Each structure stands twice: as C-alpha cells, then as structure tokens.
C-alpha cells in the first residue's frame, strides 16, 4: 500500500505540485512560489487506524478511499517515529488482553515534536472498571516510550487516563512557542512544515503597523506567533474546544495583546456591518481596532461571500489555504481590489495531491 512512499520519489512529486500550482494560479499573475519542503518520512503527527479482528489475530487496517479495499498496516512510514513505536507496542500488548481487545474498532494517535503522545481507543462496548484497570496498565506500558496519556471512548462515554491533550513546542525564528493540542480538535498535522508556515507569516508581517484580525484562528496557531508584530490582535473561532485551547495558549506564551472571540466568520462579518448584536461581544469595542491586516485560514470550502467581502476591506490579506481550488475561486474576487505580492507552497502532505498554499495580498494603489 505504501510503495509510493519513497524519499527518492519526493523531489519529483514536489516538482509536479509546483507545476500544477503554477498552472492553476497563472491567471492571477502570482510571483514564483516559495516552496517549503517537508521531511520525506515520519512527518505526520496524527494518525488513526481501524482495528481488524481475525480469529486470534488483531491488527490495524486502512482503506483505499477509491476502492474501499482494506490494507493491513503494521508500520506507517509517514507518521512520527513515536507513533510507529506506539502502534507496535499497543497492538502487541492488547492481543492477549481480552478486556482491552474486545470490541475495539479504532485507535487514534496524536504526537508532538516535543515528544508527547495521546492515544484514543474507540469501542463498540461500554467501558467498565475492569477495562479501566487494564487501560491504566497499558498507559504505563506506553509511557516507557515517552510522556503518554490515554483516552477510552464508547457510545456516550469518555474515560480519560491522565489528560486529554498534548503540549507541543514549536521553534519559530529562535523563539519557543507552546501550544495545547486537544484530542479531536484540529491541529496542523505536519509540525515541521507548520514551523515554516509560521516563520513565513512572521516575516511577511514584520513591517506591519496597527492591528491584526484573524478569522478561523483554531487554537491560536498563527495569532500567537504573529502577535509581537502588531499593536493588538483580535481572533475569531467557532469551536468551543479550540477557543478554550487558544485561551490556554495565550496564557502559556504570556501574550498580552491578543483576544479571542467565539464567533464564526459570518457572525463577525455581521457584527462588523452592524447587522446583529452579539452578547459575546460585550466588553469589546470593534471600532477601536485598526483594520489594516487580516489573516484567514479557512476550511476546505474557502471563504463564503460575506467573509470574502469583509476580507477585501483590509489593506493587507494573508490567506492560508488547504484547498488551492477554493483559494483560486476567492482570488477571482479579491484580485479586483488587491494584488498578490507573495505566494508560497507548504508541502504538508507529501505523496498526496493535497497542497497547502499561502498568499499575501496588498490593496491596489
């Protein structure tokens, strides 16, 4: 299944992506892309596997997304070394452990560059005291690999052994930034490339003045890194768990000029336009921010029309995209008022067609 994952193939596959992006964005006269490469192996910090039971044997499987054919997975070369070690250690441990093995259908792994691990076991059964006793022993066993916490999940049930998050430490231009990453919440899967993305965005805003507004801020990944470049930062995010993590991360990094609002981009746009009032905005005076720079990192669907219109009001736009095609669609509108002055390709997902892009747009004179 993983025969295409070969470091020798990586340069050509990356070149193919560059060519595809050059063709897609040619109508917008974008500059030549800065290309930020990934490690060719062991770059992915998240992985999830279905668990297959075959008589006395139990092993991980993945599915071919096109054919739905299943593949046995004993190692996963794109995942971190810590995940690969934990995969083998866990499956060997549970093979002869009825309490842990029975009705287990999925295992999720979340690791960090800083060496922490969170393992989630998903079951088609209720988790009782006998399960918890054995799970605690498993957690102790996995902790020999490094700091590890374990979560058991079943229908309407969640058992946390330890904590339900890992703490990542990223190095950005010589500065260490700490991020809480919670189970089942979005985090950048390729930590090495994420560091490069943050460095690129930090450089792009080095000479900015005024304030930064960020839409879709997640756990504060970009806002926290970029806060030193601005007077004030106001960021929005709709996910409760992500907002909670962002608040934790603001405190952990001692950031004093960053506020997070739990709002969708559509709601923030309505508030900016005076179309609706929100209780969550009590205590915030939106008129006190200088709306010079905006950063957006939207979902694969890209910017909706209201957010697109809001973004077009800013002098500088930093757009991080996980879907080049919706980025191109948004640029059709945004380039009516702005020019693309920088273009970057972040190879978060080697050996796949997925591409992460970044563009810097400045208002036309």
- The largest beta-sheet arranges its strands as 1-16-17-15-14-11-12-13
Distance between the termini: 52 Å
- Total strands: the figure is 17
What is the ordering of alpha helices and beta strands? HEEEEHHEEHEEEEHEHEHEHEHEHEE
Mean pLDDT: 94
Please bin the fraction of helical residues: 25-40%
Give the uncertain stretches in residue-range form: none
Q: Hey, roughly how much beta strand do the residues contain?
A: 25-35%
Number of helices: 10
Please compute the radius of gyration using only Cα atoms. Answer: 22 Å
Shape: globular
- Biggest beta-sheet profile: 8 strands, mixed
Secondary-structure-based class equals alpha/beta
Description:
- By secondary structure, this protein is α/β, with parallel strands linked by helices.
- The protein is 29% helix and 30% strand.
- It contains 10 helices and 17 strands.
- The protein has helices spanning 10-24, 81-94, 98-101, 129-142, 191-204, 221-226, 240-252, 265-272, 305-311, 324-334, and strands at 34-36, 46-54, 57-63, 70-73, 104-111, 117-123, 148-154, 157-161, 165-172, 175-182, 211-215, 233-237, 258-262, 291-296, 316-321, 338-346, 356-363.
- An 8-stranded mixed β-sheet has the order 1-16-17-15-14-11-12-13, with helices on both faces.
- β5 and β6 (117-123) form a beta hairpin.
- The longest helix has 15 residues, at 10-24.
